[in-house]
Amino acid sequence: MPHVLELDSVCVERRGASVLNRLSLTLRQGEFVALIGANGSGKTTLLRTVLGFLRPTSGVLRLFDTPIGHGRTARKRIGYVPQSLAIDFKMPMTVRDVVAMGRYGLIGLGRRPGKADRLAVEKALNDVGIADLAPRPIGHLSGGELQKVQIARALCQSPDLLLLDEPTSSLDLGAQRDVLDLVGRLHRERRLTTLIVMHDLKSLPASCTRALILDDARIVFDGPFADAFTEETLSHVYKHQGPAILRELLAEVSSGEMSP
Is the Cα dihedral 93, 177, 5, 217 positive or negative? Predict the structure, then answer.
């Protein structure tokens, strides 16, 4: 199975401190992988490194078998859903306008969108289930609706690799389940390779079969998602919780309340 992403002993430093420490991993085409860890463990740093916002101080990073130094074209094959939508909600923009922004990197500066771009926007709106919201002002949406707009904007790029950075962190429980179900469905229907960053193990889509756990800038677990539910691995995620809390979480797994 082809490799989509490869990191080989990648180190990243910021202000003299190590934020990724000799990190190695491989994502294969079609995988749905959860990247899990406590706050500050290096999850977002890893995404920002893959996206090119941060440069490794050492090691090798490849996207679609392309080394990072030559990866500008390869990065156009990545769809990215950040934690929040970085736009001014007072601007007179509709949902369709924001989703269409996902095409800008493919179109290029100064070029007008063509028929293929408009079709990609409409397909993304329909696939995410927000076509009815297309003419609505972006400032008039709920948190769950805004997150779907972000996902549609990422899909507009027709990506092969989808990166999501804690897409449910600011949503209520109902909206969280709705968004995660959507991500699982899109992964299957669009045959994506998906890497979703979470700080919580409780509500990942059933499509997710592999877990990576980061702690102190290192991968401390890489394996089947079901095997991540042990007191040792959970201690890396819920670092400030006592043994009783960890045993309670494990009991939820055993009773079927959490679905690894």
Answer: positive
Q: Where are the alpha helices (DSSP H) in the chain?
A: 43-51, 72-75, 95-100, 104-107, 115-128, 143-155, 173-189, 231-237, 243-255
What does the DSSP assignment read for 156-188?
TT--SEEEEESTTTTS-HHHHHHHHHHHHHHHH
Separation of alpha carbons 126 and 107, rounded Å: 21
The CATH T-level fold of domain 1-77+160-260 is Rossmann fold (3.40.50)
Q: Is 172 left (phi over 0), alpha (psi -120 to 50) or beta?
A: beta
pTM: predicted TM-score of the whole model, two decimal places? 0.89
Query: Residues 148, 129: contact at Cβ < 8 Å?
Result: yes
Q: Are strands 58-63 and 210-215 parallel, antiparallel or unpaired?
A: unpaired
Which residue from 59, 53, 118 is spatially nearest to 80, judged by alpha carbons? 53
**pLDDT per residue as tens digits for the range 118-158:** 999 999 999 999 999 999 999 888 889 999 999 999 999 99
> According to the model, what pLDDT value does residue 243 have?
67
pLDDT of residue 2 exceeding 60, the answer is yes
Domain ranges of the chain: 1-77+160-260, 84-159
Q: Name the DSSP letter for residue 94.
A: B
Contacts of 21 (CB under 8 A, 6+ apart): 11, 216, 217, 218
Q: Which region among 84-98, 109-123, 161-175 has the lowest average model confidence (pLDDT)?
A: 84-98
Percent above pLDDT 70 for the chain: 88
